[in-house]
Specification:
Structural class: mainly beta
Largest sheet: 6 strands, mixed, barrel
Radius of gyration: 22 Å
Oligomer: single chain
Strand order of the largest sheet: 1-3-2-6-5-4
Helix content: 10-25%
Distance between the termini: 55 Å
Number of helices: 4
Length: 191
């Protein structure tokens, strides 16, 4: 999985006044959970752009005063009006501890059902996956080549030994449905 480096500095004071002063200076207050105790730090708002404003998933390498932590983005809070980042929570990664993440789904192939006029529905764009950090994929590839009109692609067909899906087995990832044009052509062909 791809990683992004975020350079920051630890915060001593975590009160309301200190946090407001940080935000006015263009910095974002952050917390890193998962270790022995939470680590409070701040980083430039610009450094979060490649991590937040993308459909892809990344791990984050956080550098604080010479100490490096591997983490994943856990939660982010935005300002309701200006949409600027107010606060970010990270979860520290350990090589031997499994972690849960939402991984994007990429559809590959050309569906047979779509070629004859069906409509493709991409029901789930992200799937919740649990795996060790080394086994986390950048994306999950879903092959839709064999989908005919009326067929569905279930999570069970995407199984992998490196990670487990945290969805029921009957969860539909993609499906090909009858489109209006295909239905009209079928009734005209019958009549």
């Amino acid at each position: 999985m791809k990683s992004i480096t975020i350079k920051g500095s630890q915060r001593e004071s975590v009160g309301k006044k200190a946090t407001k002063a940080l935000r006015n200076a263009g910095k974002v207050p952050c917390v890193l959970y998962g270790g022995d105790k939470p680590v409070h730090f701040s980083a430039d708002e610009k450094s979060f752009k490649p991590l937040v404003y993308t459909p892809d998933v990344f791990t984050a390498t956080i550098e604080l005063d010479g100490v490096t932590y591997n983490a994943v983005l856990q939660d982010i809070q935005f300002h309701p009006v200006s949409d600027s980042i107010l606060h970010v929570d990270f979860y520290q990664l350990f090589e031997d501890k499994a972690v849960t993440m939402d991984i994007p789904v990429r559809l590959v192939g050309s569906s047979k059902g779509v070629m004859i006029g069906g409509a493709l529905r991409h029901n789930l764009r992200k799937l919740k996956v649990k795996a060790l950090p080394a086994n986390l994929p950048d994306y999950i590839e879903a092959d839709i080549t064999e989908l005919e009109i009326g067929n569905k692609l279930y999570v069970t067909e995407l199984k992998n030994d490196n990670y487990t899906f945290l969805h029921p087995d009957n969860t539909v990832v993609a499906q090909v449905r009858m489109s209006r044009n295909a239905a009209k052509a079928a009734t005209e062909a019958e009549g």
